[in-house]
Design goal:
about 200 residues, alpha+beta, three-stranded antiparallel sheet, 3 strands, elongated
Length: about 200
């Protein structure tokens, strides 16, 4: 049952990632932002966008912001997939698999090692002109993460989670069987039948 649930989790996640990629490929234009800002041009990637007011000194904070936004975006995707497809799952082991799938303590590390900065653009401050108003200096950025990398990462996670849950179940069953054996008269009977040397 756990194996089938794990396969379904990954299949539904992959379907969701690629369906939403196609559905959200519309371009959004924001005044005074670069033309590529909020443009998810390749459906094979998850995109995040951010900007910071200020100059070149804001590039590192912008990169950190992009990483955090990617983690939040993936968390939202996972929550949506679980809510829409797995909210009625019954069984302790199955619920544990879903709960641990949802709460990924290593997601930030995965994102940090796989995210790629797609573009960064600095906009210099402009003084107020006769026709146009003043513009503050700002840095705009976009970052991408391949959807296939996320799916492969989640496949490995689900496999490990499933193994851990199955081992826990096996340990509990063995402990229960052992305690029943110790409580029964069978152990005493076997000891009585074994001759001493």
């Amino acid at each position: 049952m756990l194996e089938a649930l794990g396969i379904k989790l990954i299949t539904v996640l992959a379907g969701f990632l690629f369906e939403t990629g196609l559905a959200t490929a519309d371009k959004i234009q924001i005044d005074n932002a670069p033309s590529w800002y909020y443009e998810a041009k390749n459906p094979d990637y998850i995109y995040v966008f951010s900007y910071k007011k200020g100059g070149i000194e804001k590039i590192d904070p912008l990169k950190n912001d992009l990483e955090e936004k990617m983690v939040k975006k993936i968390d939202k995707i996972i929550e949506t997939v679980i809510y829409e497809n797995f909210k009625d799952v019954k069984g302790k082991a199955e619920n544990r698999l879903i709960r641990e799938f949802k709460n990924d303590e290593n997601l930030y590390l995965f994102v940090r090692s796989n995210i790629k900065i797609d573009r960064i653009k600095q906009r210099k401050a402009k003084e107020k002109g006769f026709i146009k108003g003043a513009e503050e200096a700002a840095v705009f950025g976009s970052a991408i993460l391949p959807k296939k990398k996320l799916i492969n990462y989640q496949k490995k996670r689900v496999g490990k989670l499933r193994e851990e849950i199955e081992m826990t179940k096996a340990d509990k069953s063995f402990d229960k069987l052992n305690s029943e054996f110790e409580e029964s008269d069978t152990e005493k009977e076997l000891e009585a039948e074994i001759p001493e040397f």
